[in-house]
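2024-03-11 09:14:02 INFO receiving multi-entity request
2024-03-11 09:14:02 INFO entity count = three
2024-03-11 09:14:03 INFO echoing inputs for audit
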Amino acid sequence: MMTADSLHLTMATLEPFSSLELGHFILTSAILFAIGIIGFLTRRNMIVMFLCTELMFQAAAIAMIAFGRFHMDLSGQVFVIFILTVAAAESALALALVVLLFRRKETLNAEAWTELRE
Amino acid sequence: MTIETTHMMMLANTAAGPGWAGFILWFPLISLALCGLWSILRIKSKLPAWTTVGCLALAFLTTVALYVSYSEPVVIHLFDWFNLHWGSGAKAGSFVANFSLYVDSLTLLWMLFVTGLGTLIALYASEYMEPDVGKGYTRFFAGVSVFLFAMSCLVMGDNLVLLYLGWEGVGFASYWLIGYYYTKPSAVAAAKKAFIMNRIGDLGLALAIWFIWLNFGTVEFADLFAVIASGAYHTEAGGWSISAIPFLLMLGAFGKSAQIPLYVWLPDAMEGPTPVSALIHAATMVTAGVYLLCRMFPVMQLHELALPTVAWIGTSTAILSATIALAQYDIKRIMAYSTVSQLGFMFAGVGVMTTAGAAYHVFTHAFFKAVLFLTCGAIMHGFAGQLDLRKLSGIMRLRGWKVVSVTMLIGCLCLAGFPLTSGYFSKDMILAQAFTSGHSAVGWLLLFTAGLTAYYTFRVWFRVCIGPVHFEPGDEDHGDDHGHDDHGHGDHGHGDGKFHPHAPKWAVNFVLIAITVGAILAAIPYFMPSGEEGVKGGWVASMTLDSSARDGMYGVYAIEEKGKLFGADPYNAMYFVSAAFGLVGILIAWWLHLANRKAADALRAKLLANPLTRWLPTAMENKWYVDEIYHVFVRAPLWVIGHAFALIDRLFVDGLLVNGTGYLPRAVGRMFQPLQNGVLQSYAVLMAGGFALVVVLIVLVMPWLQPILADWMAGTGGAG
Amino acid sequence: MLMTSLLILIPLAAAVAIIFARVEQAKWIALGGSLVAFVWSLILAIRFDEWGGDGFALEGAVAWLPKFGISIAWGADAVAMMLVLLSTFLMPLCVWGSFTAITSRIKEYYGWLMVLLGAMVGVFLARDLVVFYICFEFTLVPMFFLIAIYGGENRAHASVKFFIYTFTGSLIGLVGLLYIAWRHSVFAGDWSFDIAALTAFAASELTAQEQAWLLLALMAGFAVKIPLFPVHTWLPLAHTEAPTAGSVILAAVLLKLGTYGLYRFVLPMLPDAVIEYAPFIAVLSIIGILYAALICWVQTDIKKLIAYSSVSHLGFCVLGLFALNPLGVQGSVLYMLNHGLSTGALFFLVGMIYERYHTRDMDRMGGLAKKMPIWAFFMVFFVLASVGLPGLNGFVSEFLCLIATFVATPEFTEYPGVLGPWYAAIAGIGMIFAAMYLLIMVGKVVFGPFKEPATEDHHHGEHTLPADLSPREIGVLVPLAVLCIVLGIYPKIATDAMEQNVQTTLAAYPAKVEAMLAARQQSAEDTQASKPAGTGVPTHAFEEPHESLTEMFSPARYESPMPLASTPIALIPAAHLPKGGTP
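2024-03-11 09:21:47 INFO inference complete, emitting structure
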């Protein structure tokens, strides 16, 4: 309890952004997410699709930081650090998989892989 | 009424009998066990026969000892079998049917000839079955032992369930022995038919037992007679459950004793070895129905129409099978139909309330029919399976066949009711009683049947035993496998020149003579004192009188107005009337089949030529097409239903209901299957779309739905 | 506790040992394990002090999930003990009988058999509902693999069908049992899965309507297992495809789980519903008896014939139970044992033929008595036991079941029933049919002209079987034959042992049946009285044109019909609702 209170006090002393409000960050996040999802849904290149998922990740990260700042809570930033770590690991894995998939069929087209169809 | 009741109470108050009487049952079992042992040891000698003969002889001696020491009905408890109790105090109940024996004079009468004839016929079989030594010999004698055990249970059981055990047991023994030549399809089919036909009757008996237990609360004879005598049974279940009992008992008896409508198995049962036909299908097992009705005679009177039904069924069977016997050529088959016919006489006897007459006829018939079958068997044995009376003639003049021919003659005389033979007296008791008790239609029909019987019996004897010597051997070589092929007898002879019939040896001849002497002496009990004023039938009648069948004898003399025959007491008039019928039958047979054999063929040809009468010999030769009728009306429909059910089971119950239900989840899955197309983006679209849907629900629909839900929860949740 | 648990642990230990053993040791370990289990069960049976009593012995319990009142509780009454003995008796024979038949994946096979034994014994010994259910369902797993791996050509389909069908049924049954446990928890304030407590509770506190629904649920579980017409179709398939030992165990023990369930749960827990619907279930049994018998008649596959004959025979068993008098219930329990012995033996015999000729088609063989006299002897013997020849075991139980059904009339003083002569008379026709189809089979296969199926060229490697039975095979059959004779001529050992037990199970029935009959008579009189006099047209003729089958056979047809469509919530009465809430 003590630590939370003291943390709150520390953050409260910080200077807030002058002109930017929460809404701006949320909007940015939403736009990023939309770009990501549209890109993911429309493109067939696996690398591009992967990049789009990263975009969506980062959109989420922005939103979390913004809310964390808004609520004066460090959890948001903690989560973002998690996301970054996971994203790094995951991109390494995903790119490796993409390379493997490319080697199998000499294409990056996602539609070439429909083995999971029932 | 009072005499009857005291007598019944006497039957009910039974003392405990001597335990050694159980050996009448145990000896055949020991024989069975030893036969099993011999077969395991692969004994290839006649040891099984001597084992069986010895054990059966001991059983016979035990029976004799029991007869000698007999003074009053006794119950001998061997061990508990069905012994169920429940409740306590006033609510206590029990179902008790133990392995116990009930010995009264009726039991003894039956057991004496069952074990006696059983021993003699086993002895006969020891020679008759000689070619099978090392093959089926042990199996045969094991079957005979099973039969004797089951028959002893049937006759001696102190309750209906043990009787039922014997009842089914003799049916099984009969199945075993009819199917002795198991590679022969006709024998297997006959065995199966016998068992199944008997099972139908058995169901009737089982139902009767259940009804008896339902109404009288006991299945033990002593208690049962006591309950009936006291009249203290409840009838509020509706009279029908009591009046059904005699009819169901009857059904059981008709199955076992080959009466209409269940008689068709018995003629087919002649596929078994001849000693079996003699022992089981002539002398002993088939009389079990008569025994049942005698034993349950008080029960048979629970419905006033029961005994007349028995009388009429017996009469119809007698006349029907006699007409079939007229037109057959296979001598063993003729004897089989004559057995059916004679059983009809016995049932008619029970029906017209002379259990003594019926029992006496059973007694004499056991001897003379055994003789006839055994002589037929000897002929069949000697002439390589030849049984066609057109292909055998004058065998009396062959060396070594005198004994067979003479014993057969005596057997035929008894069967034909020739004056002063045993069959003559026993049949007369039934015929006379039919007139006495006012069933004169039954009496006249039976008299007519007696004439037919005399004719077809002597048709056999005149054809086969005397006349010019002529014979064709059958196609069966006894040394070889029996009936390996099933084509008919006598199609191709081995030629008279080469074939030498082998005459029977000492065992067969000894048994034939012994049983023939028995058949002759069986007339003597008629003249012995019966112990009751004015009762004819002598010793046999007194044996029957002492038992539960007494009611029948009592009924005879209770009849107020005795019927007359030609103005005289039927018992006296019948000596002459039946003798006349018998002699006429014999004379016709003499004329057609000895003096002028061509006349018989001419008569048949004449009947066949006339379109109006053609049906008669055709139908008689084809046994009135009863088998075919059963096939069309019973077997075929059931077969069709069986197939229909199999189809329904596969297509409807399993196919539609079960697999259909199993198919449902799969069908639902298949409906959504296109969504799983494996394309990554379509999954993503679905995910996004689904998410969007949830958002829309939460944002737009919920605010509208929430109040309604809240109302509903408040309305019902509160009540719960 | 430990002594009883050992009976389950011995086979499981054998199964574990088999995993670590060499292939050629597997069968010997299995034989040893099952023999030890059998001997152990014999020792327990000797120490068992409730023979002839009505209580439980060998009891013991260990708390498992105390919060929900679940404990691992064992115990056996006389009936359960007999079935335990049947299971342990048959398993060594099954193992021994499989020595030459199984040639691939041997270790798994014997391992599964051992697991199966443990599960079967567990079902009969369980005194806790959850343990019972676990064991009950766990019998499916080994059986599934036995069919799926070692079965015939259509084994995949058969095993899946067997599993899903019976599993679905028992899940519905589980729902019913859980409902009882939940109601009990509401009533008593605490959870308990103790079978005795639940039985006492259910019999006295549940309303007639609840009982009716529960009867439906429990019957769904147990009737599929028995199997009762019309939910029997998994059985012929499973039997036909299963390996010999699988068929034997399936017929001899697994089917009995269903009838045991009826005896243990349905009869004591739901007396009102049982009385009400006994005629309906009896009619289903009778249909099953005759229907399956007629189907048997036209089968050409021997194994399928015997499988259908099981359907027919188990109909008698159910009929006996629902006669609701000691005769019938004792007969029925005896039937469970007898059917296990004779039908089990028949499956062994068919398996022996199959091992030699690789076919079960009756049309392709005939007159085998000539070549295989010993086999023929046993075949005829067990067929006769199955047909119900007096002197052999089948007769005693069949006779008791039928006479019990026959006398189960309202007039039967000590135990009034709701069936009667007609039920028994029609079911009795099944006795004739049984003789017909079995003897036709014997006539074709055992007797008649000799005909041998052409032996196929793929021989099973190392094993060469003699033309007739080997000593091992005879050794498998002889114990069964001996027991058939013993139970046939001295059934008293079994009937005496369970006499008290059965009466205690049925204790509630006489009074309830009488009350029901009185109520029915009363309402009939009321209907009579309220009938409008003098109107020419009988008005009631047009009121209810459609009468459902259930109502037709329900003695309550004169009472107000049950509102089947009411919501489940409405079924739950307040916990203090008066007993037997039939209006």
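2024-03-11 09:21:48 INFO post-check: Strands of chain B lie at 15-16, 74-86, 93-103, 392-393, 470-471.
2024-03-11 09:21:48 INFO post-check: The first helix of chain B runs from residue 2 to 12.
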